[in-house]
Amino acid sequence: MSDDTIGKEGHDHDATEHGPAARIKALEQLLSEKGIVDAAALDKIIERYEHLVGPRNGARVVARAWTDPAFRKRLFADAVAACAELGISGPEGGHLVAVENTPRVHNLVVCTLCSCYPWPVLGLPPAWYKSFAYRSRAVSDPRGVMREFGLEIPESVEVRVWDSSAEQRYIVIPERPPNTEHLSEEELAALVTRDSMIGVATIAPPSKKSPRSRER
Amino acid sequence: MKPPRIDALLDGINLGAAPDEERVFSAPWEARAFAVALALSEAGYFSWDFFRARLIEQVAVSDRVRERDGTASRGEYYEHFLRALEQAVAEAGLASPAELARKIMEIEAGT
User: What ipTM goes with this model?
Assistant: First the structure.
């Protein structure tokens, strides 16, 4: 099954010559008949990752880090424990490391081998994060990649690229934008975008009209 | 004034929605594949790391084909994911490729 052949001919009992929808349907049905999986439980998992687990969790972590210096310190010392304080934990949430953007350092996260990503704080990764183009270029040309997201990092700022793995996941803590001193923690969280926590964006100061400015 | 999206980078798979509003799965079968993999690992039939090792292998095969031929003939991420899942399921002794192929035929014949 792990062979490299592209064109297949003949009928060799190989399920992979069918479309993915037919294959997963058959697999689910087979496992369900054997009592190994249960359709309702699968529905619940999908519901959880489509609607409950997502970047709003990470945004809460970032807003807390901006407003509570003691929390910020704990976050950089032990991100797993700090997130648990906010009730955020779950699969793929172990080994989380928070990396800090500063005026001198910008952080960018990738998983070059597959799709490792901190689910509890960011949800499941976007399609581009898993794409060959992003995985193959984020390390060799991070500035070029960020430019394609509309983000220009000045030469004076050091760019650090973090390659995720089974052992280590990353969340970028972006810089707090100017003119946000008057905002509440909740309003601050609303400014934080998913892309800024991966490092392909920074956070724009709030516009007068809408606190949720997320043009990129 | 929208900054240029990274279309060239996205291999045409970006949905163009605002980042936080992109759908998590681009087709229902992707969601089912993800859920089956996670359910099996949560139930202890295999560990997520066991699955991930097979996923990494599938992604690497696809990357090699892409580098060599410049094509995405092995599909996108969730197709690698599904191959890895089928492999993990077979190796864990839950369902063999032959069983799976028979089940597909059965479903096709029945509808």
Answer: 0.84
CATH code assigned at A190: 3.90.330.10
Q: Which residue of A has its CA nearest to B78?
A: A20
Q: Which residues of chain A have pLDDT under 70?
A: 1-16, 208-216
- Among B14, B36, B64, B94, pick the best mutation site for testing chain A contact (most A Cβ within 10 A): B36
Q: For residue A27, give the nearest of B62, B79, B100 by CB distance.
A: B100
Which residue has better confidence, A22 or B76? A22
User: What is the least distance, in Å, from the CA of A182 to any CA of chain B?
Assistant: 25
Instruction: Give A171's strand partners.
Output: A98
| Long-range CB contact pairs, A30-35, < 8 A, 24+ | A30/B95, A30/B99, A30/B100, A30/B103, A31/B36, A31/B40, A31/B89, A31/B94, A31/B95, A34/B94, A34/B95
Residue A10 belongs to some domain of the structure? no
Instruction: Tell me the two tokens of residue A90.
Output: 């779950």
* B83–A2 CB contact, under 8 Å: yes
Nearest to A14 by CA among B97, B88, B104, B84: B97
- Among the partner residues B6, B38, B61, nearest to A2 by beta-carbon distance: B61
Distance CA B45, CA A35 (A): 12
User: Does residue A83 have an active-site annotation?
Assistant: no
Q: Tell me A125's DSSP state.
A: P
Q: The tokens of A191 are what?
A: 């400014």
Q: Give the per-residue pLDDT at B110.
A: 82
Count how many domains chain A has.
1
